[in-house]
Amino acid sequence: MNSLDAARIRLTIDGRSVEVDAGTTVAAALVVAGVSGARRSVSGQHRAPLCGMGVCQECRVTIDGRAHALACQTLCREGQIVRTCDGEGLP
Ligand code: FES
């Protein structure tokens, strides 16, 4: 590996294995995984990351069993398990 090669990280999103560069946020990994929504609104609509800076709260997912984690404020880690509304990770 040379200095231009980023380290790769493998995590699981809704049961699917996803590989991303080190330093990737979970919100970006959701896009890589093709996930359409992070959570559902109280009326059942898909909600997805919007602001990317921890304000809107639309990117809440369950990360390693911790509910309501902000995907845009969390970096991917090796072996991490992420559940979205599609994976029934949130109520
Ligand atoms: S995208 Fe807005 S808080 Fe994460």
TrEMBL record:
InterPro entries registered for this protein in UniProt: 2Fe-2S-bd_N, 2Fe-2S_ferredoxin-like_sf, 2Fe-2S_ferredoxin-type
Superkingdom, according to UniProt? Bacteria
State one molecular function term (GO): iron-sulfur cluster binding
Q: Where are the transmembrane segments?
A: none
Residue stretches making up the 2Fe-2S ferredoxin-type domain: 7-88
Q: Which keywords does this chain's UniProt record carry?
A: Oxidoreductase
| Designated name of the protein | Putative molibdopterin-dependent oxidoreductase YjgC
Ranked from the top, the taxonomy reads:
Bacteria, Pseudomonadati, Pseudomonadota, Betaproteobacteria, Burkholderiales
